[in-house]
Design a protein that fits this description.
The protein is about 35% helix and about 25% strand. It is α/β, with parallel strands linked by helices. It has a 13-stranded mixed sheet, sandwiched between helices. A six-stranded mixed sheet has the order 6-5-3-4-7-8. Helix 11 packs across helix 12.
Length: about 525
Amino acid sequence: MNSAALRKFPRAYRALAQSGLFSPIPLLALVQLLLCWLRFGGSVYMVAAWGAWRFPNRTALVEPGQEVTYRQLVARADRLAGALEQGFSPRTVGILGRNRIAYVESLLACARLGADTVLLNPMSGPQQLQAFLRSQKLDLLLCDREFRPRIEAALEPIRREERPTVVELEGARSLLESKTAKPAGRFRVSPRSGSLILLTSATTGPAKKVRRKPSLEEALGLVTGLLENLRPHTGEATLLTVPLLHGHGLATLVLSLALGSPLFLFPKAGPDEFLRCVEERKIKVLVLVPTILYRLLEAAHPHHDLSSLRAIFCGSAPLDAGLATRALERFGDVLYNLYGSSETGVISLATPEDLRRAPATVGKVLLGVDLRIQGERQSAIPAGEPGHIFIVRGRAAISTGDVGYLDAEGRLFLLGRADDLLICGGENVFPEAIESRVNQALEYVLESAVMGIPDPEYGQALHLFVVLKTGHAGITPEAIARDLEPLFPRTLRPKKITVLSELPKNLAGKVLRYKLQDPG
């Protein structure tokens, strides 16, 4: 541990202790953590094993019709790891599935083996899967049964000797129960420490692999900043509506396992199921993306008892200022907005107080994050002026791909993606700014998206895609154009307006702009 990390450790320890992370007996919990770390390394399996040591009989995971305790979860992961080692000895494993207990068991088993584990996106089509499988060598691919046909189609053109072995997660359960599988904990622990590999959200094109191991100093700073603001506590029932394959979902899993908090999972569900779960299971922490937050607000009625909610953590996609205000009015001061990326991890956090004062903010930069806002020539920019957002680690400056600014109180605001920037008549235009204004001004618009199109007069003009709210199907593009006239100067009025039934999005709720198409 270097000197910088040592200076941060006391504050980090206080934040960890206040969360109840070292319960039930702090000194014993610390010794157990050290022993788990020495035996299993810093992996998600290590966190689960530490939880099983402290809270063996607590509920760890719940899905409709099934739940497991910490002891059961780790024992089943051990059994599956033994079966996988005996049958396949994989070094690189892909997992393609939905939020289920079987998914988590497979994730833990791969970590136990020390295998590099790639979390694949269920939204990937056969062509995307094929491109990934051609470029990345996998020994084993674990998948939900529903994705088997898609995988077979993707593997068809690939030479047989280059294909990974495909095992359905439902089939992995039979391996887990196999009499030939080695008993839990009896197989050799791999001397190598495997990596957990996430894929970028692919909003502008094909997904890319991200393999990230933060330094101890960075990790201590981030953990301290998050815990001091979010104030999680051991044993809090948590509902995860975000896919586990994203950093947001994965971080929730790790934190829940460490805190001994039951985590509720749904392979597929809508707002009614989520609201029912909050009511019946007295959910304290709700983790979601803006799309789910909107749907919950639309579905929630006054008779829904949501008083158990202590915190709603929103992230993975831009949170509209109007939506943030509506959520605060309906749920109270429990909404938090997180900003980050697969490449950089969590960057900033907006508390309910921040969102009350400035609903459009993504909050203040977290402890341990070195954020810089720079101009086109990589020069520093004063507070209040927009620029490109970079995260600095050592001598490296990592671009987030976003443009934004800091206000006088240190709150960060995003203007949009740098690669989405449009120049209309010499004026810089960020699609998110246009979309936010359209969504707030036109009460019949559910959501919108903007793309640039060539224009002989302005160089680029705006193509506006809108989704109408229920009951407003008769609204025409011409009517929308008339309503937009007083809102924008001539250069920013959309030259083309298309009404869609829905916007193309990834599982995190981000709009896939490259998939926007005019159905006509």
